[in-house]
Amino acid sequence: MDHNPQLKDGAPLNSDTGRGRIEDPSAIVNVPWQTRPAPPTEFELSLCEALTGIFGAGVEELSDIVAELNKRNVKSPDGSDWTEDSFQTEMKKLGT
Known about the structure:
Layout: H1 42-56, H2 62-71, H3 84-94
């Protein structure tokens, strides 16, 4: 399974637990390695594969990560080359 089908799209944040979009934590089966409501997209899989290779090669500085993504022809969601700003914006989006 590549996502948790028990999560409802658009569910309100549960501020009592601080654990995100789970309506009743005792009624939800959490898949330990995954709590997203849908499978990853082709874009997400491609980006993940590229970043795994980049980090595996010891690249850690933001400017170098962005340069390596562009060198590997991994495009941003809108099809353009990455910038430091676009990479940070996308990481924040994907991390929520």
